[in-house]
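Thread: "does anyone have the structure for this chain?"

Original post by V.I.:
We have the sequence but no experimental structure in hand. Need at least a predicted one for the grant figures.
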Amino acid sequence: TDLSEPYSVFTYRYFLNAWPYLCILAMDEGVCVATIVGKHDITKKGVRRGYIAMLVVDKHYRRKGLGSKLINMIIERMAEANCAQVVLETEVTNTSAVRLYENLGFVKD
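Reply from O.Q.:
Generated one for you, tokens below.
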């Protein structure tokens, strides 16, 4: 799947080592068809904040609710880690992603 902002393997290792419970794969017959990667940190105001760094769904699996399911799963895990906020970023030109995030309650900053 094409990524708007491809990461290096070292970035993936960083997330996997530090926050393995926030790195989720969706598999179909042994093939990864979607993934979501996140982390959490403490803001300058002392608030624990979750950050969704990446969501990718194979083009053949889009518009089937898989992205929403992964986002809800990672938000639940972030809540279990006592995150009071969840933030993410996407390109404004990625209208499908913007619509998905807005439908899930995210607001533009």
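V.I.: this helps a lot. The longest helix spans residues 66-80.
O.Q.: and Residues 3 and 56 are 8 Å apart (CA to CA).
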